[in-house]
Structure formats: C-alpha cells, structure tokens
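Design a sequence for this backbone.
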C-alpha cells in the first residue's frame, strides 16, 4: 500500500514538470517558424562585442554610440586623435598633429641631408626626429585613455591599455605596486641576457666567418670552424630565448592588469560554510515548476 502511495505521489510531482517541459518544447517549435531573421538588433549587439568595429568606432566619434575604451584606442592607433574627439578635447588635436607632423617632416629633411652629405650627425638628427613623432603618437593614445570617462574603478579596459602603453602602469592603476619590481626585474633580466647572448653570437659568427674564409690574407682564429659554428648556433638560440622571455614577461603583466582589475570586488573571507535552504523562485527556474519550489546554496 505504501509503495502504491509513493508511486502516485511521485507521479503527481513529476507530471506537472513533464507537462511544463512539453509546453516549452511546443513553444520552441512554434517560435522556430515565427522568428524575424531580418532583425538588426542582434547585429548591433554583435558589433559591440567585437575586438574592433569600424561601425562602433565612427559611431562613437560622432557621439551616436557609447564608446568603448578598447575600440577607441585601437582605432586611434591609425586614425590619430580619435580619442581626443570622443573626449571632446578638440584643442589637443593641433598639438598632436603638429608634433607628429613636425617630427616626421624634420626626420625626412635630415635624412635627405645625410644622404647628400654623408654626415653622421644628420642621421642622428633624423632618428631623433622620428622618435619624437612616435612619442607624440604614443602620448595621444595615453592621453586618450587617461581622459576616457568611466564610472567603473578599476576599469579593466583602462588597466589593460595602461599596461600595453607603459609596462607596470596597469598595476599602479589597480593599486598593486608590489608587482612592479617583479615584472620590471623579469623584463630587465630578459633584455640583459638578450644583449649578452647577441654579443656572443656576433662574436662567434665573426670567428666562424674568419675560419671558413678562403682569403689567404685573413688570419685564422685560434679555434676551429666546427667549434665556432657550435657556439654561434648556441648563443643565437640563447638570444632568441631571451627575447621570447622578455616578450612573455611583457604579455604577462598585461594579462595580470586585466585579470586583477576584474577581481577587485571579489570577496575573500574565512567563511567557507555551506547552507542549504528552501526558497521561492520563479516558476521557469524551479525544480518542480508547478509548485515553484527550489533550493538555494549559500556559501
């Protein structure tokens, strides 16, 4: 008798759930043939989730769409001054374009003087002029990110761009100053070993070239060509590893700034208890839809 009662009770509880699921399936089948596939709302939403969207970028410059700092920064690397336009700081545009234009113009001028005269001093002037133009370009991006208005702090987009533009600045923005010596130490170590291994690579490359030269006037080095070849390849490999390590350290601090900006509001405490309690939840999320009964897990 008890077994029959339990069976009837289980059937009474499960039947509404099955009927509810069947109703959902029927609704899905009906909606599948009544969808409006010409709706552009999804397309607009998809544009906002892309890494870069021309539509989003130029819409933001026209102040017709909300701007995303990542999208604006990427667009402004090519369309210089875009972030200043979005921030309505139009007075900065002559400074940006004037600085970049002057640097490029002087670089071309001094490079022409160097080619016509062969004076190494003009070559240095040309190099520094191009570097100055690059600094104005970099400054326009940094200024745009700093001036970008946001209600969120820390903003993951700004933290990421800070670290891209200047290593360690994202950690400063997140308030994690203790990480700066760590990342700069890693990158400085990578640059040091890259320089050391590159010097040794060039040294043994020269020795190998001398050892394999067929010119009788070339003085033969004290080591054989096979040994020189071995050390040349060894230090070339170490040079490449050092460069790869430096690049990985740079990328790591960018990822770190992004991830930990998201985790600023992550609550961590010593309470790891688990409590299970009944609660009233919306019918579509209920374990027993007809009754609206479910359970919540609280940590």
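Sequence:
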């Amino acid at each position: 008798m008890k077994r029959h009662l339990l069976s009837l009770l289980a059937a009474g509880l499960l039947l509404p759930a099955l009927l509810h699921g069947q109703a959902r399936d029927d609704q899905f089948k009906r909606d599948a043939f009544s969808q409006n596939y010409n709706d552009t709302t999804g397309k607009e939403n998809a544009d906002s989730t892309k890494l870069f969207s021309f539509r989003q970028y130029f819409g933001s410059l026209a102040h017709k769409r909300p701007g995303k700092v990542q999208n604006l920064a990427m667009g402004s690397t090519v369309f210089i001054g875009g972030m200043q336009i979005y921030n309505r700081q139009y007075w900065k545009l002559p400074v940006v374009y004037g600085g970049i234009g002057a640097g490029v113009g002087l670089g071309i001028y001094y490079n022409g003087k160097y080619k016509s005269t062969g004076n190494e001093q003009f070559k240095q002037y040309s190099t520094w002029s191009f570097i100055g133009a690059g600094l104005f370009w970099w400054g326009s991006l940094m200024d745009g990110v700093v001036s970008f208005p946001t209600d969120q702090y820390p903003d993951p987009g700004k933290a990421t761009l800070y670290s891209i533009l200047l290593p360690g600045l994202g950690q400063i923005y997140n308030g994690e100053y203790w990480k700066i010596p760590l990342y700069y130490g890693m990158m400085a170590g990578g640059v040091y070993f890259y320089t050391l291994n590159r010097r040794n690579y060039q040294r043994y490359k020269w020795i190998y070239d001398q050892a394999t030269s067929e010119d009788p006037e070339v003085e033969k080095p004290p080591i054989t060509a096979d040994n020189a070849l071995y050390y040349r390849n060894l230090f070339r490999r170490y040079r490449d590893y050092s460069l790869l390590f430096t690049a990985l350290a740079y990328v790591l601090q960018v990822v770190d700034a992004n991830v930990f900006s998201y985790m600023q509001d992550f609550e961590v405490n010593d309470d790891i208890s688990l409590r299970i309690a009944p609660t009233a939840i919306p019918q579509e999320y209920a374990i027993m839809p007809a009754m609206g009964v479910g359970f919540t897990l609280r940590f």
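The chain has eleven helices and two strands.
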